[in-house]
Amino acid sequence: MKKEGCGIVGIALEQGNAALPIFYALYALQHRGQESAGIAVSSGAKEEKENEISGNVRDIPLIKGMGFVYEVFSTQRLESQKGNIGIGHVRYSTTGASKVENAEPLLANYRGGKIAIAHNGNLVNTAEMRRELERDGRIFHSDTDTEVIAQLLAKELMKHDPIEAIRELMKRVIGSYSLVILMNNTLIAVRDPLGIKPLCLGEIKDDENGRSGYIIASESPAIDMLNASLIRDVRPGEVLMVKGGDLESYQLYRGKNTAHCVFEYIYFARADSVLDGRLVYGVRMKIGERLAEEHGVEADMVSPVPDSGITFAIGYAKRAKIDYMEGFIKNRYVGRTFIMPEESSRDIAVRLKLNAVRANVEGKRVVLVDDSIVRGTTSRRIVDYLKEKGAKEVHLRIGSPPIIAPCYLGINTPTREELLASKRNLDEICEFLNADSIGYLSMEGLIDSVGIEANNLCLGCLTEKYPVEIPGEVCIARQLKLTQF
Predict the structure, then answer these.
(1) In this prediction, what percent of the chain has a pLDDT beyond 90?
(2) Residues in Cβ contact with 100 at an 8 Å cutoff, skipping those fewer than 6 apart
(3) pTM, whole model, 2 decimals?
(4) pLDDT of residue 428
């Protein structure tokens, strides 16, 4: 099972309550995390400026809990959060266990007040930084890398103004991070110097509720949800600050190359997202078309594994001139978890989520299209399920190259030993999956479909070469430089 990481949003309104629009925006980001959700707000825009200097610790109302967005928040709870600036988070655990203590946003104290922080990504030097901070006497309440970032930022804020503190923070932390930070009367957003995880900026212009201001979110559908206008992506190494209705940009780092996560285009992002100027739906259509060119086969129908394989399958069917038809109908009311005490019960897990349509597949040669294969156990059950329903042949087509290595930068993927493709050739993979044939998208086909040069993408899980230093792994050095103002 893939776990995608997290979704973050920050909203700064000139007036009005930010909690409800953050709630709606988190709904649009629910696909990025379903373990927990949280919202923190501040009415700092109406605070007296001298309070910032006095050292008074301001309260930041915070609501968070385990579950989907609609499970964590009620109308009453949202109305209790009064403030025109706020941040929100939906979580899948990549670092830290799945428990309420690790739900975000997280709070930290500093001499000028409190900060709240929400993070999408994963640091690779968390343990080292945590030990250093604990030696300084800082106490941790969670086991996430987000709290390491929060504590380190609080430490730097004792010596520097916010921008200089973030500059020092970015010197120290290694890995992927898109951040939204609530600091008194200010909303701050940070994207790591390689731009590994997505982050975009939008403007809210006098909506029907009289709201105007700015929104910063992991993906553009959160901006669309509020009928706001997408302005642009936050640039790698850029810090945005919204204070008193004004937007300021600080380009703290510039890199010779970026390292955008390629799996945002393959799987994680919603198909209607615009990432770095590219519509994800269009990228996935091209991937499907390229798959048909590279791995054509005589067949009667093309079917996706819903929902992640749908757009790929549409592209494949279009280029191959084979009928697109649903071999599965997805049950959209299955919860996040269910108890599977017996090995045999795992087949039930597939049937709970997907029901094969016998009338569509019986006697047919089926091209089954999916985005990727991790362990392969679920894929094998899906292939077997189609054959049980009478499919004559099942030809797997995969919208990515084989995953041969773990991700350390924001995806909770298995070890090499657990990855299907790490130690097997194509014939062995096909035999394991009980498929009649298998075709993975080539690396060249992937790069062409995404439309970003390979040296500007993170391809670590596909190539075993990573854009940052990871102990025991090969690093492709990305040159960074500090931009002075």
Answers:
(1) 74
(2) 36, 64, 65, 66
(3) 0.91
(4) 97
